[in-house]
Amino acid sequence: MSAEGKFQAKYSDCLENFKELSYDGINNESLCQNTVYKYYNFDKIFKKEDNNSGRRPASPDALIFKGRTIYCVEFKNSFEESVREKSIQNKLKGGYHVLSGIFTELKLKITNYKLIFCVVYKVSKRNRKRRSTANSYSFSLKKYGFNEVITNDVSFFRQQFIEKIGQNLSC
C-alpha cells in the first residue's frame, strides 16, 4: 500500500481544508479560503502519535500527497520579511524527524518519496512580482533532508498548486 493509502487508513480523522490548515489564531484569520479540498493536519497527526511525552517538536501545518511526492506546507500569515528563519528551520528539522518516525511505523521508506517543504506567506503590497521556482527557496533550508524547499507568497503557491497538484486553489 502507498504512503497516501496508509495515511488515509490511519489518519483520515486528521484531514482539514486549507482555510482550517492556514488559520492563524493570533490574528484570527486564515491565509487561504479554500474549503473544498482536504489535506492532513500534521499537528493533529503528531498529537495522535505522541505518547504524552510533553516534548512536541515544531512541524509544518499540512501534508499533501501527490503520487510519490509529499508536500510539507507551513503557512505564515505574515509577510516574508517577518518570517523567522530559526522558526522555519525548527519546523523543517522537527517535521522531517516526526515524518520519518511515522514512515518507519507504517513500514514505509521515506527515501522512496520526494519531499518538498513549502513556506507560504502573504503577498507583499510593495513587491507583487513573483520569483521563479528555482530561486524561491531561502532561509538556508535545503540541508534538512528535503529534496526541494520552496518559500514564496500565497499567489505563487496557488499557481504552483494548480500546476503540480492539478487542483484549483482559491487562497
Descriptive report:
The protein is built from 5 helices and 8 strands, in the order H-E-H-E-E-E-H-E-E-H-E-E-H. It has 171 residues and is of the alpha/beta class. The longest helix is centred in the middle third of the chain and has 21 residues. It is globular and about 45 Å long. The chain starts with a helix and ends in a 6-residue tail after the last helix.
Beta-strand residue percentage: 15-25%
Q: H/E series, N to C?
A: HEHEEEHEEHEEH
Structural class: alpha/beta
Count the helices. How many? 5
Unreliable runs: 128-138
Summarize the main sheet.
6 strands, mixed
The number of distinct β-strands equals: 8
* Overall number of domains: 1
Mean pLDDT over all positions: 80
Helix share of residues? 25-40%
Radius of gyration: 15 Å
N-to-C span:
32 Å
Strand order of the largest sheet: 1-4-5-6-7-8
What general form does the structure show?
globular
